Amino acid sequence: MTDSEVERFFATLAAANPQPRSELVYASVFELLAAVLLSAQATDASVNKATPALFACAPTPRRMLALGADEVAARIRTIGLYRTKAKNLVATCRLLVERHAGAVPRDRAALEALPGVGRKTANVVLNVAFGEPTIAVDTHVFRVANRTGLAPGRTPLEVEQRLLARVPAAYLQHAHHWLILHGRYVCLARRPRCEVCAVRPTCDHGRLQSSAPSRYRPSDSA
C-alpha cells in the first residue's frame, strides 16, 4: 500500500464514521480501565453483559477493592479467564489506591505496572480516556494491518510501530478504532467481506482478489 493509498484508506473510513468510539460500556476512566482489562481474550459484548452490575456496586477502585477478588469473580463468571481477571482487577485497584490516590494515571509506565495491564490496554486507556494518539494492536488491528499491506509485521509491537510511522497525523487519534471496527465487521478472519469493503481499492488483498481469474465458465449456466 502506497502512502497516497494510506491517505485514501483512512479518509474513506473517516468519512463513513467520523467519530468512532469503543464498543465497551463505561462511565469513567476507571471503568474504562477495568472493562479493557476484562476484555482480554474476550469479546466486548461479553464484557458489556457483566460490567453494568459490577460497576453499579463498585464504580471506584476503593469500592472494587472492598468487594474482593472472590466477589468480583462471582460477578464476571461469564467472561473468559474470570478468576485470573478478578484477581488482577482487585490487585490493580490496590495499587491505584496506594500509589495514585485512587486515580488512573496518565502515564504508560505507571499503567503497565498495574497487574493485568499490558501495552495494548495501556494504549486504549491513553487514547480513549486521555486523547493520546496511540494505537492499540489487538487481533483485529493486527490482521487488518497485515492483510491490507498497511503495516505488515510479525508481532503486535512491530505492527504498532509501523502504523505510527505510516498513519497520517490527521487520522492518528481515531486510527485504532477504525481498524478494530473494520476488522470486526468487514475484514473478518476466516472470510473477509471484500464484496462490501469500501477500502478495497486501496487494499493489497482486495486488489489481489479483484485481479484473480474468474472461475465462471459459460458452460456453468447450461
Overview of this protein structure:
- By secondary structure, this protein is an all-alpha fold.
- It folds into 2 domains: 92 residues, Helix-hairpin-Helix base-excision DNA repair enzymes (C-terminal) (Endonuclease Iii, domain 2, Orthogonal Bundle), CATH 1.10.1670.10; 100 residues, Hypothetical protein, domain 2 (Endonuclease III, domain 1).
- It is built from 12 helices and no strands.
- The longest helix has 19 residues.
- The chain is elongated, with a radius of gyration of 20 Å.
- The C terminus is likely disordered.
Question: Any key phrases for this structure?
Answer:
single chain; 12 helices; 57% helix; Endonuclease Iii, domain 2; 2 domains; Endonuclease III, domain 1; mainly alpha; 222 residues
Summarize this, please?
The protein is 57% helix and 0% strand. It is an all-alpha fold and 222 residues long. Helix 2 packs antiparallel against helix 8 and helix 9 crosses helix 11.
- CATH-derived topology of the largest domain: Endonuclease III, domain 1
State the helicity in percent bands.
Answer: 55-70%
The N- to C-terminal Cα distance equals 41 Å
CATH hierarchy class name of the largest domain: Mainly Alpha
Summed over residues and divided by their number, the pLDDT gives a mean of 92
Radius of gyration, CA atoms, in whole angstroms:
20 Å
Please state the second-level CATH architecture of the largest domain: Orthogonal Bundle
- Outline the biggest β-sheet: none
- Range of strand content: under 5%
State the shape.
Answer: elongated
Individual helix count: 12
